[in-house]
Amino acid sequence: MQENRLSNPDAVTPADVAWFMEHPGIWVWEEAGRILGFSAADPRDGTIWALFVDPAHERHGIGRALLDVACDTLRRTGYRTAALSTDPGTRAEHFYRAAGWTVVGRNDKGELMFRLAL
Predict the structure, then answer these.
(1) Model confidence, pTM
(2) Cα dist. 68→2, 41, 52, 87 in Å?
């Protein structure tokens, strides 16, 4: 089962992609010429904008490493807390809770809102 798929591709605009290509915050995990995961931290608002790992390579520390560098990016740009959201009842929810993130509410899409002190 795959989860947290981007159900609306229009939610990621060409402008979003261009911004992350030109600014600090996007990280890619590559092995043997294959991209196995990526994360994106948004220093404009202190959020983890994206974190995805190839399902065939989950549970090997890639997600945790990518999350750590994303948080480091936010810390270096002056943030003391980071935020993100994900659907409730998912592996992602359990991943963030295990990493020390705290649920602080829900957003208008019904996703859980998480915070972490940096």
Answers:
(1) 0.87
(2) 23, 10, 13, 21
Closest to 70 in 3D by CA, of 48, 85, 86, 52: 48
Contact indicator for 70, 40 with CB cutoff of 8 Å: yes
pLDDT in single tens digits along all 118 residues of the chain: 345 565 666 677 888 878 888 887 889 999 999 999 999 999 999 999 999 999 899 999 999 999 999 999 999 999 999 999 999 999 899 999 999 999 999 999 999 999 999 9
Structure tokens at 13: 């605009």
Helix (H) or strand (E) holding 98: helix 91-98
Is 104:68 a contact under the CB 8 Å cutoff? Answer: no
